[in-house]
What we know:
Layout: H1 9-19, E1 28-29, H2 32-38, E2 42-46, H3 56-64, H4 69-74, E3 76-79, H5 83-95, E4 99-104, H6 109-117, E5 121-125, H7 132-143, E6 146-147, H8 154-160, H9 162-173, E7 180-184, H10 189-201, E8 206-212, H11 217-224, H12 248-257, E9 260-264, H13 266-280, H14 290-296, E10 307-311, H15 318-326
Helix pairs in contact: 1-8, 3-5, 3-8, 5-6, 8-10, 9-10, 10-12, 13-14, 13-15
Amino acid sequence: MTHLIVPTMQDIEAAAQRLSGVAHITPLLEPVPLAQAFGRRVFVKAENLQRVGAFKFRGAYNRLCQLSDTEKARGVVAFSSGNHAQGVAAAAQILGIEATIVMPSDAPVMKRDNTIAYGARVVSYDRESENREEIAAGIAAKSGAVVVPAYEDFDVMSGQGTAALEAILTAKEQGLIFEQFVCPVGGGGLMSGCATAFKGLSPETKLHGVEPEEFDDVRRSLLSGVIQGNAKVAGSVCDALLSPAPGPTTFAVMQNCLDSVQTITDEQALYAVRYAWEKLKLVVEPGGAVALAALLFGKIEAADGPICLLLSGGNVDAETFHQALTVAPAGALA
């Protein structure tokens, strides 16, 4: 049996040092509309305002900046539908590393264009018939490039956890401890990194993940005790969260730390995009808005103490944003 090495609080603090002056310290907002609607203190960690418009920059830079000079000279290769792609491309550009990104042909055009604008070479593939890991491995085998996974990676997880570290420390400066923390879940890199930070600095905080309804591999994995995959590889507006299954390491951390994983529909995610724009004055993509959707649709157990919602990304294309402005699903609490 393989022994898994998981990040510690010290690893996340070390990542924060590497990211200092490079990644943004994103704001911890306390929107009045949410407080009025739910009668409690609601905070939003706005990772949609991070470099590249998503938390993914944190883990990508933390991974790439630790490469040796020899590894940097060989370049890096990653696979992603968009936000990890942009994070790796931007980090590589800063560090002077050549980057190749394997992206699905149906990835949002804006995410693809942004990835290219950061200087990366994009290789397209078909989600339904091709395997992105195999394509990336083939590129690495030919070029010697370092593969940078989107979530199943020690340094990537550690970097993502710095988002929670910032939120916890900012709250403590105000004399606050979050009663609940709600976070999007795809492959689990962000959630496992954040959970590590909370268990280290705020162990009393209840941790909740949120997934798209038909892509609830983490929820089913935690219920069964065995990693489960998704029957579908595409078909949700939450493109940022469509990972095939959690990795062994992210699953182990989440299994040990999470209090629940909730699911939301595409319509609920789109409504959260609309709510964030209309009420919070924030642009958020559907996958990045699922924590907000979980609150808006009563998926999180009501409580009196402060709650922190992480908005993980803001890379929404015009067509999806227009769709969000017209959706009105039943059951919204605000």
